[in-house]
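seq:
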Amino acid sequence: MKDLVAIPNGWQQLTVGAVLRHTQYGLSLPAAADGDVPIVGMKDLVDGMVRENNLARVKIESEQAKRFLLHEGDLLINRTNSPDLVGKVGYVGRPIHAVFASYLVRLAPDITIINPKFLANWLASGLGQQQIEPLITRGVSQANINPASLCRHVRISVPPLSEQQGIAEILGTWEGAVSCARRLKENSERLYTSAASTMICLRGGNMLALRKVLLPDRMKAVLPVGPFRALGVRSHGKGTFSRIDDLDAIGSIKTVYRVEPNRFIVNIVFAWEGAAAITSPEDEGCLVSHRFPAFSIDAELLDLEYLRHMIRTKPFRQLLALASPGGAGRNKTLNREDLLRFEVHLPSLEEQRRIAATLTTLDKRIVNLGQYLERLVKQRDALATELLSGRRRVNVPAPVG
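struct:
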């Protein structure tokens, strides 16, 4: 067997199938069980581990009810899902009596050959994904990988068991740090959502129609020559983004308009999904089509930062959905006049600013935690590549004599 890459002395390259003692597909599992049964799904694979808390439960008939004891060291691999999720790996840290979703495959490593956590780390690393990627069959919205093909063709560089254990322990420490950072971010997001829903109320004493505070903006039409920055609006109130577009390249003659900062902007096609935002100074000069109307804000009645937080609340997203009649997708176009007719409660400007300051502080904490988490993941992945390739060694016995 020819090595894919140079490996240290004492290491060997084996196929994934050669280090397994069992492969289990789907829900065809032994041991009958009555009533609700815990089920492990895609959302339970977090940071390369199977999240055991708050597993969903599935109701199945007694004669069909089957569950399985997932053993410590088992791996679950996603074999079919959206393209960015296929091949995702979850490591079982302790026994779980549950079923697992039909798109997950259970691999049981042979512990006499390989450390299960080492195998999980290797499959999730860039080294593993580089070999898994060519085996994935991609469709328009879904991708698949044949587990048998993965076991047969993906080859892993395997050090001695003692070194595998050392690598697994080091990377386990980093994974713990990543998990902790992710929990801090998730907790901060929940705190923000709770605070915003408590502090921002759209029903109250001082009710004003949105047309009183949101004034249609007369955006300047331009004819770009060559590539330009096009602005997009994310769904669920998650802000704006930009991309490079070129009307000449796609043969389009549509009119585009220049975006100004500090405007309320909405994507009328996906407003029902909460695609609304406040433009920032970084967005200035971006171009949009007629599907992105913008509105200036009456600063004497409505604080810009307060509005930034208000449009992220569930009640405001519901207003956008109510003003977007019709069927699914592009048939649910926002009626701007209907939206502007809605009335919302606005506290005094002083109260708006106080609320906005509190929520902005929480929001900045989420952004900072997200940046910290991103750096932590990059550092962990870089270290994993060094350790799993053998470029950085651990637990290597000292030379005799």
